[in-house]
Input
Amino acid sequence: MEVSREFVYQKFADYYRNPSTEIPETSLPEQREFAYLMFKEHFMVRHQRYTEFKTFRLNLADIVPSDVYHSCAYYENPDFDMDKKGWLGADLVFDIDADHIPTTCNKIHDEFRCIKCGFEGRGITPEVCPCCEATKFETKIWACDLCIQSARDETAKLIDMLESDFGFTQDELRVFFSGHRGYHVHIEKDIVRSLDAMARKEIVDYVTGLGISVLDKEAKEKRAAAKKFSLHNFGWNRRLKLGMQEFLHKATKEDLKAIGLSNKALLQNKEIVIKLAISEGRWESIKGVSVQTWLRVAEHIRDIQSSKIDTVVTTDIHRLIRMNGTLHGKTGLKKIEFPAKDLQYFDPFTGAVAFKKGKVKVLVSEAPEFRLSGETLGPYKKQTVELPIAAAVLLICKKRAEVVK
Ligand SMILES: [Zn+2]
Ligand SMILES: [Zn+2]
Output
């Protein structure tokens, strides 16, 4: 194994072998599948069963995996083949990752290259190569403050929906930084365990704002629509109403243009428009503002207020998810839980740092400016620097640095 990789492996080993490293116990470990990615061999070991969590905890010190997972599902026989496991239920989980959020920074710091034909670009990695239709890419992605803030905003919207619309309390929502550039929200209550994939898809549709009835295609028929466009005061309807009020209150000609509208009537006497149409529900009372216009505004608010979760994760009732307290192989940061109310204050670039002591000399090929443990580092380009261990591990995992002998 090359020097830099060996260095990271040693640090991961120190972490898992240190008895004071806290890896919180998962609920019902005896019913879960455990899995891990081998550091050196790069393959996934799955279908592991541990009747006691502490045995698994001890094993981590021997194995030193690059990534550690457990199933969201509970099984009669977690160590059997998938079709023989005997599914008993699953936690309801949400994954919010900057990979799925169009940010302004991903065009700056994310690159992808098709392994088959070499097609390359910046921004979100496509699912399929536009040139050769291959699906494997080499990627170089980064996690900056803007990525984290975007993921945090999407998580805040999700938490608000789970509380206000679904009636979960903050204590029932377990919120984690994922270890890379996003957040996980787990709900482990009995009431969600038996939900099947279809039921979970309904929840996903709700959270992402898919198929809200006021936006129905049928409602676009002119006359019927006038009757149909109405918003009540609960859930998405309330969210749209408040969002439309706020949007109109601040809207300029340019804001309307950006969503394809050029309706002057919306901007003259704004407060009257807001009062009559939105507050009192007399949508037809504003001269020159059609139902189609209201639909367009509502659609825009839906886009803003929906939460950009990774929909596949929530609907997959056999999903493996990173284990709390373990390290992310692409960063060396740990997945860590914090109270839902602390979402805006919890700083992953401090709170999720696993390596707190020591320095090492590395040759950095290229890295933007970044923050870690309260220090601002970089930017670096083709230079040898002495860095705190956590920063060196991050850059090596991101293939941007090598240990200097
Ligand atoms: Zn290609
Ligand atoms: Zn970013």
